[in-house]
């Protein structure tokens, strides 16, 4: 039987039967993203975070019918060391690629970073692939209770993929 030959009542009935299945699929994130759920919400920086001592926040939300997680961050830095005050904005999209989690980061300063994502215990790590010609980056979230997270951003020089050095670290509290 051709779809055009189905009665309107049959189409409505089938749609009614499928609606709970479709809604349930949209209500839950991809299984790989489940381990990142503690990040959901708005996080407010609690000071610190050399260099620059910026004041900022980030928000993690689900998007595209719960198939990706999106992080948007904003930090304002005061003038310091002959450098004018400036604002830093970035966007990161965390997505499933096969059975793995990956992320793509871009910011208003022209940086773009691709990450592999892992979660274990109370930490979530975003690590860029090793390269002989480019620095390697590691962004880590380590939970210190239900509403606090320590954030570390480390950089390894080109050709030294495991020689990470702390670039900036800070603490954030989840906004309730």
Descriptive key words:
Lipocalin; globular; mainly beta; 176 residues; 48% strand; ten-stranded antiparallel β-barrel; 14% helix
Task: Give the gist of this structure.
With 176 residues, the protein is mainly beta. The protein has 2 helices and 10 strands.
What does it look like?
The chain has 176 residues and is mainly beta. It has a single domain (30-174), classed as Lipocalin (Beta Barrel). The chain is built from 2 helices and 10 strands, in the order ααββββββββββ. The protein has helices at 8-27, 31-34, and strands spanning 41-45, 55-63, 68-77, 86-97, 100-107, 112-120, 123-127, 136-143, 148-156, 165-174. It has a 10-stranded antiparallel barrel. Strand 3 (68-77) and strand 4 form a beta hairpin. The longest helix has 20 residues, at 8-27. The termini are far apart. Mean pLDDT is 85; it is low at 10-26.
Give a topology summary.
Elements: H1 8-27, H2 31-34, E1 41-45, E2 55-63, E3 68-77, E4 86-97, E5 100-107, E6 112-120, E7 123-127, E8 136-143, E9 148-156, E10 165-174
Antiparallel strand pairs: 1-2, 1-10, 2-3, 3-4, 4-5, 5-6, 6-7, 7-8, 8-9, 9-10
Main beta-sheet annotation? 10 strands, antiparallel, barrel
Going across the biggest sheet, name each strand in turn.
1-2-3-4-5-6-7-8-9-10
Number of strands: 10
Q: Could you name the CATH homologous superfamily?
A: Calycin beta-barrel core domain
User: How is the CATH topology named?
Assistant: Lipocalin
Helix content: 10-25%
- Compute the number of structural domains: 1
Poorly predicted regions are 10-26
CATH architecture: Beta Barrel
Structural class: mainly beta
Task: Please state the overall shape, judged from the principal axes of the Cα atoms.
Answer: globular
| Rg computed from alpha carbons, rounded to a whole number of angstroms | 21 Å
Distance between the termini: 54 Å
CATH class: Mainly Beta
Q: Helix and strand string, N-terminal first?
A: HHEEEEEEEEEE
β-strand percent reads over 45%
Mean pLDDT reading: 85
How many helices in DSSP terms?
A: 2
């Amino acid at each position: 039987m051709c779809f055009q030959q189905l009665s309107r009542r049959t189409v409505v009935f089938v749609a009614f039967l499928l609606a709970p299945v479709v809604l349930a699929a949209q209500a839950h994130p991809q299984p790989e993203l489940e381990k990142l759920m503690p990040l959901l919400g708005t996080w407010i920086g609690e000071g610190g975070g050399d260099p620059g001592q910026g004041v900022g926040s980030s928000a993690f939300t689900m998007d595209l019918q719960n198939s990706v997680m999106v992080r948007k961050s904003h930090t304002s830095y005061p003038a310091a060391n002959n450098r004018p005050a400036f604002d830093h904005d970035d966007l990161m999209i965390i997505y499933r690629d096969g059975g793995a989690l990956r992320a793509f980061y871009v910011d208003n300063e022209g940086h773009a970073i691709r990450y592999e994502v892992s979660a274990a215990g109370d930490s979530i790590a975003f690590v860029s692939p090793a390269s002989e010609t480019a620095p390697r980056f590691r962004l880590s979230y380590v939970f210190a209770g239900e509403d606090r997270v320590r954030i570390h951003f480390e950089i390894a020089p080109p050709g030294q993929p495991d020689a990470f050095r702390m670039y900036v670290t800070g603490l954030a509290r989840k906004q309730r």
